[in-house]
Amino acid sequence: MSAPVSRRRILATLGGVLAGLAALPLAKRIKQMFITKVAPSDYDPYQHKWLMCVDVDKCIGCGLCADACKTENHVPEASHYFRTWVERYIIKKPKAGELTARGEVLVDSPNGGRGGFPPTMVPKEEILKSFFVPKLCNLCVDSPCTQVCPVGATFDSPDGAVLVDPSYCIGCGFCIQACPYGCRFMNPETNTAEKCTLCYHRITRGLKPACVEICPTQARVFGDLKNPIEDDPLLAFVQKNKVNTLKPHLGTNARLLYANLDKEVR
Amino acid sequence: MYMQLATAITEAAPHFDGYVYPNESGNHPLWGVLIVLYPYITGLVAGAFIMASLVRVFRVKPLEPVYRLSLLTALAFMLCATLPLLCHLGHPERSIQIMITPHLTSPMAIFGFVYAWYLMAVLLLELWLDYRQNLVEWGKTEKGLQGFIYRTLTVGVTDVSEKAIKLDDKMSWIISIVGIPSAFLLHGYVGFIFGSIKANPWWGNSIMPIIFILSAMVSGIALCVFLYILLSKIRGRAIDMRCLDAMGMFLFYGLVIDATIEALDWVHRAYSAQEGFHVMEYMAQQRLFYTLSIGQLLMGTLVPLLALGALQVTRKIVPDVIRKWTYGTSAFLILIGVLAMRWNVVMGGQFYSKSLRGVMSYKFEFAGAEGWLLGVIILSLPFIILTVLIKLFLSERLPTAGHVPHQVEGE
């Protein structure tokens, strides 16, 4: 009869299994293939740094950007899937006797602003001011969405875009919960997280994002910080305006810059 | 006129329903019933293990009768802990990627490793060492499939000499000691998944992991109390009231600490009243009224606190049968209360718009991937597994079913 297996051996085997398991993360990480899948083969993400800026005062709320984005990127039609959308802010005058500078703030974004906004029913004389704010990925330097992705399917591209590889995303939704700006959604067709890519398939071919291209008032300014052109609109924008970011207190270091941003916008 | 009124209402009137980002305005929550069950089940695992550790490490002798029941309960729930997560994924077939290419800055990525560590290096090992002598014994006496299972589980280690058993005890004791911080890690980490979301003021909170650990301990002990009473009832055996009183005492003190820390969290939120607090206030009073105020606070905390607290001072004069019922009912209420707490955390965080301007309302399905039905099935599964485990390893028919840990026995 063979000698019984010793506990020491059993424990050693178990230890080996555990060590093997612990070594798995050290295994060569699967490279993010998304860039090479979407961009042309000669595109080098290290040679670019894309940035978008928004001038709130120039936005007229036509919603063409949201519409163009849906079409260009095949974003699901329903009114709760947007890579970019427009919000309308109506700040009412303070009520009689209220010793405040501004009254109630009303915000809406019917169908993400696609097709424009219906006239507000708030009487004109009650409105202190109103304005539109286009929203999209805030291009965070310290993006919470990439931080929390358990498999690295969402990642910061060297060129400044925050991308999702849908073929690697496991659809846990953690990034959607972590984005403070509500810029992500779960695509019901692919069951993966989706967001603004700055129209990566366009910008890597020398085109502008669809929303920038279609904006009739040039409220959205787009450019490449590494390759400024003559009279670069992006540089002019940051030179001319006092700029701000959304939710700066969260420490996301958002790169998306807004000019003329009201404190009510979050 | 009516049109004007209707538009005015949709635009302005729902002061607290307010504005939510378009991507938040879908019909269903992103994280549904399954994600409520995930922290609930892992919490029960951690709590049940800590219950067992009270015997093994802290040598609380009166709890010996529930030592093995606690460990088996922890195992049954541990085996199902990943199921809700797995079923919830958009691509469950890719879940292995969490282990193969974990993104190490993600709290979720570490779960696979914490889980593997806890299940394999702590729970299974401790159970195996504790049961090894019995497995050898039962492997010889039992016939058929059951005997085969016992013999297989010995994995060929049949040395039951006094020296070997002493070594088993020693190793088991060490594993128990390692197991306590591991149990804290397992569940504290689950709390961190929510607490680390700074985008969401309902979740982003540094004491979230502590709240999760404490509520886990309480729920785990409550589950053991409930199961012990139930098992004794089914078997028609007298309950060891000394054991039940001890469990009741730990349950009470655990609940006191848990309730204190949770109250501190709320007091802090209310007092600091940071941006968006008015939305939280509205949620607590309206959307989560039944689950938070009634389920979690009144039925899940205050009533058991009073009942268990009263027993602490009147234990000697209250008849056994009343104490038994009070412990059983309190444990059941705590289990419901902690489930409500998980609901309030997971759902509350999703009712709360990150625009800080409104609250969402969602439709909860009965069937479907995030439906109630699947939730009920997943929550039933550990009880089914536990029944099998009890039949196999706590059977009264087996000669050493009344085993107590040697370390304690030798005291």
Note down, in words, how this protein is organized.
The complex is a heterodimer of chains A (266) and B (411). Chain A is α+β, with helices and mostly antiparallel strands and 266 residues long. Chain A contains eight helices and eleven strands. Chain A has helices spanning 7-23, 34-38, 64-73, 144-148, 174-178, 200-203, 210-214, 233-240, and strands at 50-55, 85-92, 105-108, 127-135, 154-156, 162-164, 185-187, 192-194, 220-224, 243-244, 257-259. Chain B is mostly helical and 411 residues long. Chain B has helices spanning 2-11, 33-56, 67-80, 83-88, 97-100, 111-141, 144-153, 162-195, 208-235, 241-272, 277-287, 289-314, 320-351, 372-393, 406-409. In chain B, helix 2 (33-56) packs antiparallel against helix 3, helix 2 crosses helix 9 (208-235) and helix 6 packs across helix 7 (144-153). The longest helix of chain B is centred in the middle third of the chain and has 34 residues, at 162-195. The termini of chain B are far apart. The interface between A and B is large, with 67 and 68 residues.
